[in-house]
Amino acid sequence: MPIHQPQQRSPGNSERPGVPQAEAALVEHYPRLVRLAYLVLPPALGRHRRVLAAHASVQRALPGAGTAPEAPAPARVPEQTRGASPGPAPDDGVTSAYAWMRLRVLRTALAHERRPRWWPGRLPAPTALRPSLPAVWGLRLFPRAGGAAELALDQELSTVSAAVRAAFALRLLEELDEPEAQSLLARADARDPASAVRAARRLGAGDRAGAGALLRSGEFDPCVLQTRPSDLLRRRHRMRVVAGVAALCVVAGGVVALAEEGSAVRLPDAGSTLAPDLDPAALLRTAAQEWADTSRVDFTAWPARGDRTDDRALLGRALRTWGRTPKDTAVSTTPGALAVPPTQPPRLLYAGEVDGAAVVLFHDGGVRVVRYAEPLSGTGAPALDFARTDDADVTTGAAVVVSRSGDRARFLLAPWISESTTRDLLRPDTPARALKVGADGVTAAVARPSPDGGCDSWPVMQLRSSERIVEKHAFLVTDLGDLTPVHLTFTPKPGGGAPARQPREATGSPALLSWARTACSLRALGGTGVRAVNNWDFAEQRLPEGGAPAQWVCTRADTWQGPGRVLVQFLGPDPSAAAPATVVGDQRDTALCSRFGQHVLGGTHWKAPSGRWYVLAAGSRAVDRIQATGAVRASASGTTLAVRAPRDASVELKARLREGGSLTAVR
After folding, report:
1. Residue 354 and residue 412: Cα distance in Å, rounded?
2. Contact 663, 657 (CB under 8 A)
3. Counting Cβ atoms within 10 Å, is residue 498 exposed (0-12), middle (13-18) or buried (19+)?
4. pLDDT of 319-346, one tens digit each?
5. Are 166 and 54 contacting, i.e. CB atoms less than 8 angstroms apart?
């Protein structure tokens, strides 16, 4: 849907808009201006400081009553690309109230990247030193977290300059054409506007419409915010230091003679009263059937289950342990999950007895699932486990570990799971077996991948959603050591001339055959906060000396934090359906093999049945030509290459894309 463009004033007016007109434009388009500033500001500021800086940039753009008029810049010729014919830049509407405010916001946001080298990194640029509002103490503010696509785009934007981010936002959000964006950047004092516009052209090139929709999502909306506490321990320490210094000053000044009264100063006991968010009576509880009547099918739709949901003593101990965390408590966190007290009453998911322990599960406002466990007998210490679960859905919010021991685990299943089975990924032809589930939603003990490093089997759960929310939807999840199991998906390679396909559930025969050979590679992802893993069959290659087919797979793991990791795997011909693939590339913190990294190239050495060695390479569907340099020099048109080479030959592989651009092989 096109964004409404504010009405433009006549370019013949030589003065800036008046303060009332500027204020009206700011009020009317405030969310739009703040989003623009947020996108331009350096991601290195961190999301909290970036949010505050975005609001400050817009609020400070409003001129004072005494601000000198600013005449519109005369028509000027932007920097032209080589070979282009010069011409007048189109009017960017700077004389309109909105466009004039937009120009001022851009100047302020771009200034954050123009610090002298000696300037401290935590301070704003010298041009923005005066105090600015809003200011927030004791809380951290950040936009609502998006999915993997939004986070991948945010990572991509963090690798370019502020001017490029500004050009990207002006093109997709403001819907300016390239000359208009270039002219506006020049007036905002951006560095090399022409290069910035060209660089912005390459961002999100695979799906510009999709990238524009992502820029309008909650991930980039600093006006719709979530809050979390700042570092409570550090803040408490600072307050105590300040209080101690103040007390010393009071004593030294003789204002209060504590020594004469023989009294001692004591801090109040934090456990003497329960805060509302740590009171069992304040726990949120969802109605039993709400999951079937809501469009938000995640942990917020889970009802409280278990035979001890009314045990206030147990719930109180769990909440107090969470809020104060005694020294003898065993605490574990998945990457990105903070082991801090709740900021609001959490939602109760489960309270009951499992495998000799009393277990309580909480959901903390859409961000975390917290597990508390205490032994039913003996003097063992309680345990707290924190897992990040923001933006969970039908599949990634389908189960939580309630008990894990050795090679077995029990799960609490989501209320929308109507059928549960188990299967072994290494035996794709073996039918799934029924999994018993108790009335409280807790499963029987489920086998886990071998903790001793072996890979003779890879157990997974195959779950089916109730037809009350989705029809005939089955999916796979597996235990990688975190509180929530990992969702497994599969993307087949496209047919001839077909567009790129989307990930689908890994329950069909091709998906199971692919996972049978790559499941053991999941061991490298254990305990890293992974939410979903997708196998993408990106290429098939006919091998030399006989033409047997081989498959190339990109296994992408998406974490709850956002960054992804890819393993490029080579599946050579083998009579065994579970013969392990060869991992030939491993790259972390990358958008490869995702919506924002749709092209990939892999390579490996391969020994033919004759004993000869080859260098093999394969690329995804957009690859037009592959070139090998180094110890061997060769090239081939299309998506695959095979060339004779010594076993240990050092070879560099590059690929050319049909629509321009190049790739290097994932190492």
Report:
1. 11
2. yes
3. exposed
4. 999 998 888 899 999 988 888 888 889 9
5. no
DSSP structure class, residue 284: B
d(C-alpha 175, C-alpha 177), whole Å: 7
Mean pLDDT of the chain: 81
Choose the weakest-confidence range: 387-401, 449-463, 596-610, 615-629.
Answer: 449-463
pLDDT at site 537 = 95
User: What's the pLDDT at 273?
Assistant: 44
**Dihedral angle computed from the Cα positions of residues 271, 277, 281 and 285, in that order, rounded to the nearest 10 degrees:** -150
Closest CA to 111 of 152, 163, 148, 70: 163
Q: Is the pLDDT of residue 482 over 80?
A: yes
Strand residue runs (E) in 294-424: 330-333, 347-354, 357-364, 368-375, 383-388, 399-405, 408-413, 417-424
User: Alpha-carbon distance 327 to 332, whole Å?
Assistant: 13
Query: Under DSSP, is residue 386 helix (H, G, I), strand (E, B) or coil?
Result: strand
pLDDT at 421 over 70: yes
Sorted by sequence, the CB contacts under 8 Å of residue 136 that are 6+ apart come out as: 48, 52
Cα angle: 149, vertex 153, 157; to 5 degrees: 170
Token pair for residue 534? 């997708």
Query: Using CA atoms, how far apart are residues 172 and 164, in angstroms rounded to an integer?
Result: 12
Using alpha carbons, list the distances in angstroms from residue 460 to 32, 139, 293, 403, 419.
Answer: 45, 40, 29, 16, 14
pLDDT, tens only, 595-631:
888 899 999 999 999 999 999 999 999 999 999 999 9
What strands lie across the sheet with 446-447, from one edge to the other?
399-405, 408-413, 446-447
> What's the sign of the alpha-carbon dihedral 577, 578, 579, 584?
positive
Residue 469 in tokens: 């929310």
d(CA 353, CA 376): 8
Whether the ω angle into residue 134 lies within 30 degrees of 0, i.e. cis, is yes
Indicate the SS3 state at residue 50: helix
AA identity, residue 587? Q
Q: Considering just the CA atoms, what is the radius of gyration of the chain in Å?
A: 29
Does the global pTM surpass 0.85? Answer: no
User: 646-666: b or e for each residue (b if 16 or more CB lie within 10 Å)?
Assistant: eeebebebbbbbeeeeebebb
CB 162 within 8 A of CB 170: no
pLDDT score at 646: 93
